[in-house]
From TrEMBL:
GO molecular function: oxidoreductase activity
Pathway noted in the entry: Nucleotide-sugar biosynthesis; UDP-alpha-D-glucuronate biosynthesis; UDP-alpha-D-glucuronate from UDP-alpha-D-glucose: step 1/1
UniProt EC number: 1.1.1.22
Reactions that this protein is recorded to catalyse: UDP-alpha-D-glucose + 2 NAD(+) + H2O = UDP-alpha-D-glucuronate + 2 NADH + 3 H(+)
Sorted UniProt keywords: NAD, Oxidoreductase
UniProt-listed Pfam families: UDPG_MGDP_dh (PF00984), UDPG_MGDP_dh_C (PF03720), UDPG_MGDP_dh_N (PF03721)
Enzyme category, top tier: oxidoreductase
Start and end residues of each UDP-glucose/GDP-mannose dehydrogenase C-terminal domain: 295-388
Superkingdom of origin organism: Bacteria
InterPro entries: 6-PGluconate_DH-like_C_sf, NAD(P)-bd_dom_sf, UDP-Glc/GDP-Man, UDP-Glc/GDP-Man_DH_C, UDP-Glc/GDP-Man_DH_C_sf, UDP-Glc/GDP-Man_DH_dimer, UDP-Glc/GDP-Man_DH_N, UDPglc_DH_bac
Protein name: UDP-glucose 6-dehydrogenase
Family of the protein in this entry: Belongs to the UDP-glucose/GDP-mannose dehydrogenase family.
Length: 413
């Protein structure tokens, strides 16, 4: 089959790679010229393991262009353009509209962009020549290709039975559960999943603050809770709060949909509030004294990516710098506008506090001696991930929700 993919950001490029790997012919459309040129040269414009290999290994079946007209002969068009948040939390559909108004001939269109519940139905009315299905993506950055090739499930939302069946046939080859439903249900499943995961993180972060006060260890609590299959251990890592291009944006969007329907969603609202509170809580562990220098170890919103969109490091840096603290950051890949060091050693040199912000492998494995260059050897482990937490040597160690007295607890015996 032949697929046209419109918009080659994370979602579009991951979809393109997945389809090419599955043996389909793909035409990728990207309007941003520098990005397009990089892709034409086989260069992936962001850090994502495995994608450059797919572009190289399947270059015979992949074409890049800046013109939607070149997708004329495709069997399906996949729309993966950005849907940024507007000020009020609603989705900006400018790029979706721009792309659809350029599709001249009648097409079967798969919406991969994250769109608010009701959008696909609205687009079907606005562009009646086409047939629509919404197939939301659930990929996580850093493992996008694996998530596209072997997702936990595929959700297909379409009112057109024929298109649902065709797509179920194509995705059926992945051997994963498939949900065929209405467009609005499919759109909801995407938002509900992200909101649930974000809420799970806020829940454990709430308890982490309590554990700090009560003298308990949140990681042991999460391990114990996670053994119950109804709860599960994943997304119960307490720390600095969630960030990234999806969770914060999707939570805002859900609240916006609710308010348009004259509803409040108190759980979602509380989870967002808890996320803000968590970053403020970690910031409050640093007592601003004059001439205080804080080194951030890790800047990206999570390890394995160079993505700084809604990164908690930015919020934390703002909270500290307004209190007169000097901040310097180090990250293996990500960049920011605050001062940045080229190496961990340079970031830590003369610092009073180090904060482990992003749990990169190389950072969680730093031995206690790595902190020798600091003015005061104090580490706040904002991800509860440092490998030497139980044997910190001369480093003053503090996690989040780990004000534990481990010697006396049964789990350490
Ligand atoms: C997320 C969803 O997981 C994915 O399904 C969706 O398609 C897009 O949004 P992603 O943004 O790549 O994916 O990041 P994810 O790995 O989910 O992490 C999101 C944030 O939550 C990160 O800031 C991470 O550090 C934080 N997090 C995650 C925690 O604080 N604790 C956890 O236990 C898990």
């Amino acid at each position: 089959m032949k697929f046209g993919i419109i918009g080659l950001g994370y979602v579009g490029l991951a979809t393109l790679c997945g389809l090419a790997k599955a043996g389909h012919e793909v035409i990728g459309v990207e309007k941003d010229q520098p990005r397009l040129l990089r892709l034409m040269n086989g260069d992936v414009p962001f850090h994502e393991p495995g994608m450059a290999d797919v572009l190289r290994d399947h270059h015979g079946s992949i074409t890049f262009t800046d013109s939607i007209a070149d997708t004329e002969t495709a069997d399906y068009l996949v729309l993966a353009v950005g849907t940024p948040s507007k000020q009020d939390g609603s989705c900006d559909l400018t790029f979706v509209d721009a792309a659809l108004s350029e599709v001249n001939s009648k097409h079967k269109i798969i919406i991969r962009s994250t769109v608010l519940p009701g959008t696909t139905d609205m687009l079907s009315v606005m562009y009646p020549a086409h047939t629509f299905a919404v197939v939301p993506e659930f990929l996580q950055e850093g493992r996008a290709l694996a998530d596209v090739l072997k997702p936990h499930r595929v959700v297909i939302g379409s009112d057109n039975l024929e298109m649902c069946e065709e797509l179920a046939g194509i995705y059926g080859r992945l051997g994963v559960p498939i949900v065929c439903t209405s467009p609005i249900d499919a759109e909801f499943i995407k938002y509900a999943s992200n909101a649930f995961l974000a809420t799970k993180i806020s829940f454990i972060n709430d308890l982490a603050r309590l554990a700090d006060k009560a003298g308990a260890d949140i990681t042991t609590i999460a391990d114990g809770m996670g053994l119950d299959p109804r709860i599960g251990r994943s997304f119960l890592n307490a720390g600095l709060g969630y960030g990234g291009s999806c969770f914060p944006k999707d939570m805002h969007a859900l609240l916006n949909v609710a308010s348009e329907n004259e509803l409040d969603l108190p759980v979602i609202r509380a989870a967002m509030h808890a996320n803000d509170a968590q970053m403020a809580y970690v910031a409050s562990k640093v007592e601003p004294t004059s001439d205080l220098k804080v080194a951030f170890l890790g800047l990206a919103f999570k390890p394995g990516t160079d993505d700084m969109r809604d990164a908690p490091s930015l919020t934390l840096a703002q909270l500290l710098t307004v209190r007169g603290v000097d901040v310097i950051g180090y990250d293996p890949l990500a960049k920011w506008d605050f001062p940045q060091a080229e190496t961990v050693e340079a970031a830590l040199e003369g610092a009073d506090v180090a904060i482990l912000v992003t749990e990169w492998d190389e950072l969680v494995a730093l031995p206690p001696e790595a902190f020798d260059g600091m003015r005061t050897k104090r580490l706040i482990d904002a991800r509860n991930a440092w490998k030497y937490a139980r044997d910190p040597g001369t480093v003053q160690y503090e996690g989040v929700g780990r004000m534990q007295n481990k010697e006396n607890t049964p789990s350490s015996m």
